[in-house]
Each structure stands twice: as C-alpha cells, then as structure tokens.
C-alpha cells in the first residue's frame, strides 16, 4: 500500500453538536495492510445494536442528531467512518480503494467488534456496502432500515422504475441519467473536491457555515481526499462492472432475507427515488411493513430530519 494519511485530532475539536468519544478498531481487506477505522460507540453496552452507515462524501458526523434519539431509546449505536473518511485512515492513492475492500473493511468492523442482533441503518453508499456485509454475515443482522440508498446492479429490470436511470438495455447498451454522469465526470475532473459543496447542495434546509466546515474537517489538504474522489469513480454504471456483480449477488441474498426490512426515504431525493419500491417488492422481510416517507427532506435526510429518522429506527427496533 502507498502512504496512509491520518487526519490530525485537532481538526475535530469543537465541531458543532459532535461531542462523542472516538473509538478505533483495526480492519482488514484483501491485498492491503490493516488500517485503523474510527467509530462511535454510544448507549448501553447490552442494548440492541444499531449500525449507522454513511456514504459519500460524509462521515459519522452526519448522524449526530440521530444518535441521541437512539441512545435515549436504550439502543447501542455503532457509527463508523468509512476508510478514507472522517477520523479513519486514508490511503493516499485512489486505486487502493475498491468497492470490495469497502465491504471487507466494514465486515471486519462488524466481526472485530463481534456485533450481533444488529439493526442496519444504511444511507447512500452505506446501502451497497452494508447490505453486502449483511449478505456475508446474515446471522448477525436482525433487521434493516434502508434510508435514501440504492443497490448497484444495472439490472435491465430497473427500466422505468427509478427517477435516476441506471440500467442495462438489450445485450450491450446502458441507460444513464444525465445528472449522474455529469456528477461523476465533475468529481473526476475538478482539481479540488470539498465535501461541504455536495452536502450543502443535497439538503432542503440551508446548513450553517460551521456545520459545512465540519464536513470538510477530515480533509485538511487535497491529498486527504483520494478516497472521497475514488468512491464516486467506483459507481457501477454497467452490468460488467465488478460493483454491479457484487450488487446482484447481494440482491440475491436479500431476496432470501425474511427479517424486518423497512424503507425510510425522503420525498426530496431523485437520486434514490424508486429504490424504496424495488426493495419493498423484492425483499421478503419488507412485505407488509409500515414503510416511511419523510416529507421536506433531501438526500441527506439526517440533516433535514435527523430526529425523525432516529424515531423511525427506534420504533422499528422496539416493534419487531
């Protein structure tokens, strides 16, 4: 592996509403040395576990208003930072990051902490990563709350189902939403990426300057953003992409998953709109559940409606 960067601790001092003690675990993935992953561990040690997974370009700071709601409900909250994000280690070379390694790193966290009876709460890339961990460690997971997330498959059967199209057509063509392609190309060509630009553009309510700065805190220099940039490049756009193959394998596992599976999507996120109905139809554990639509929230519903999301998760844990 190339150089591994570690954001200085002083970058995380006095962030608004984020006064959680840091915890660390070494995680492993094929072909690279063990890395240090940061996670929050809040609430009663013997409580049911909620595993809160973030995506691109955020970190556990995203869940700062969700965590207290769950802790008050007696839930133990584990909220990691993906490798390359937050307080976790950051390989400096983009090609050290792969979709499979992100899955392995998160799986290593789950097994390393020996988590059981887990409620997976997954948003954005937290879905493809976390659901793939669930497929590999099914017995550790009791239920799922899917929140504004997708599962990369490029399946032709998704035609007409999603607001942002990503699906194969015929034997050798693919249909892609123009906005998705524009987003991917911009992030690969821009000389500097700022997490706050993406977060601020995908919420309904304007975010305070100090909150936006908190999203940039893990990336004090451009060299720290290799993982952020590469995660966008890992978006599977065709059926031949290794990420799409992982997604299809994970979907086959979900089609056998009979434990509670609840969707909690916002009404203001075209990037994931349609996936809630796909999950409701294809996952046995989703059938007959009280699925939730949160009004007045964007892609990062944790920012627009964090307490409401927390109450949904707490209710799912209490009633299933």
From TrEMBL:
Keywords assigned: Hydrolase
Any Pfam family the entry gives: Abhydrolase_1
Gene3D superfamilies (alphabetical): alpha/beta hydrolase
Keyword Hydrolase: yes
GO molecular function list: epoxide hydrolase activity
SUPFAM superfamilies hit by this protein: alpha/beta-Hydrolases
Keyword Iron set for record: no
Residue ranges of domain AB hydrolase-1 in the record: 51-155
Domain of life per record: Bacteria
Matching NCBIfam families: PRK00870.1
PANTHER family the UniProt entry points to: AB HYDROLASE-1 DOMAIN-CONTAINING PROTEIN, HYDROLASE-RELATED
Protein name, entry field: Haloalkane dehalogenase
Lineage: Bacteria, Bacillati, Actinomycetota, Actinomycetes, Propionibacteriales
